[in-house]
Write a structure and sequence with these properties.
Helix content is 93%, strand content 0%. The protein is an all-alpha fold. It has a domain of 37 residues.
Amino acid sequence: MRLDDLFSTALLMVSRNWQRYKTVVIAIAIGTIGFIIIRTLGDSVEQRVSGNLELIG
């Protein structure tokens, strides 16, 4: 089975069962957004902590 066949079959199934998969799509979107936010906050905290440690010595 080719990759484009898999994508077309997946899109067909999602379009037919949209009500069932709507929550899955929303959960994936929320998870992705949450990961991006946590990653961004982690980088920000790391920069602040390293800056404070440099001031301390």
